[in-house]
């Protein structure tokens, strides 16, 4: 039977579930755990089919949320980065009694560019999906490189992400393709307007995958949420600016005390 990797650590009295992005695993949070362990009880998760949560096939966003919800603490803040942001958002929509707040990091409710909506060109995501069946490791590395472009430590940060991927077994082509399909097709812009729980959105000013204009548009569409744009960060702000990133999380925790 497939097992979901779930590790809990930290001495804080607030549960924080950390959901990683496409192609990666929970090791990506290594650089911020020590900064957060005294403030939160941290739940480090490998999404189904990724890292140590092997044995799972590709699944829809709803199915992924169902698998994770079965392991959730009674009440938690869900933090989702990139693809994980869609998982955290859908978790709050489907199981509002289990989620007391959400933090979306470098994520968009709709990753694909549409009319009057900035994002990744649909053909770019389709091209990644096609390339997976050829040289999927190179395709994953190319996608990771896009996440750090423009930052002062772009090469170093890209190397950190690559090492996270290579430190554990690679997800299957099927799982990776399923993740890209979620990024290409899911649109939570309208459903998320109904959320009333505390909601923090963190962006990188230099992010090439989630344009900073998304923050401005959602400030208007989701006025109950709050946004922070980190000026010199790209798609992985917790790696490039860990101290500044953690300050935002600790400040957000005050809503629950």
TrEMBL record:
Top EC class, one word: hydrolase
Active site: 82, 207, 235
InterPro entries: AB_hydrolase_1, AB_hydrolase_fold, BioH, Carboxylesterase_BioH
Gene Ontology biological process terms in this record: biotin biosynthetic process
UniProt KW Lyase keyword: no
UniProt keyword annotations, A-Z: Biotin biosynthesis, Cytoplasm, Hydrolase, Serine esterase
Location of the AB hydrolase-1 domain: 16-242
Pathway assignment: Cofactor biosynthesis; biotin biosynthesis
Principal subcellular localization: cytoplasm
GO cellular component: cytoplasm
Location of the protein in the cell: Cytoplasm
Binding site for substrate: 22, 82-83, 143-147, 235
Its EC number(s): 3.1.1.85
Superkingdom per UniProt: Bacteria
Similarity section: Belongs to the AB hydrolase superfamily. Carboxylesterase BioH family.
Its biological purpose: The physiological role of BioH is to remove the methyl group introduced by BioC when the pimeloyl moiety is complete. It allows to synthesize pimeloyl-ACP via the fatty acid synthetic pathway through the hydrolysis of the ester bonds of pimeloyl-ACP esters.
HAMAP family (alphabetical): Carboxylester
Protein name: Pimeloyl-[acyl-carrier protein] methyl ester esterase
């Amino acid at each position: 039977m497939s097992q979901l990797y779930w590790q809990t650590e930290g001495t804080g009295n607030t549960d924080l579930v950390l959901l990683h992005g496409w192609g990666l695993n929970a090791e990506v949070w290594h650089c911020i755990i020590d900064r957060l362990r005294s403030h939160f009880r941290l739940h480090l998760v490998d999404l189904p089919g990724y890292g140590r949560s092997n044995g799972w096939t590709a699944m829809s966003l709803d199915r992924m949320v169902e698998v994770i919800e079965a392991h959730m603490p009674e009440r938690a803040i869900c933090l989702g980065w990139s693809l994980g942001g869609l998982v955290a958002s859908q978790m709050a929509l489907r199981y509002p009694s289990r989620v007391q707040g959400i933090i979306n990091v470098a994520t968009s409710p709709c990753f694909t560019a549409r009319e009057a909506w900035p994002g990744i060109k649909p053909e770019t995501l389709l091209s990644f999906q096609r390339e997976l069946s050829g040289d999927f490791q190179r395709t994953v590395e190319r996608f990771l490189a896009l996440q750090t472009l423009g930052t002062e430590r772009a090469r170093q940060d890209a190397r950190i992400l690559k090492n996270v991927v290579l430190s554990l077994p690679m997800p299957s082509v099927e799982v990776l393709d399923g993740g890209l399909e979620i990024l290409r097709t899911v649109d939570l812009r309208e459903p998320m307007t109904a959320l009333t729980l505390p909601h923090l959105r963190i962006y990188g000013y230099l992010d090439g995958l989630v344009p900073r204009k998304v923050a401005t548009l959602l400030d208007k569409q989701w006025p109950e949420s709050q946004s922070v744009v980190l000026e010199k960060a790209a798609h992985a702000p917790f790696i490039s600016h860990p101290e500044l990133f953690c300050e935002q999380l600790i400040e957000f925790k005050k809503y629950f005390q």
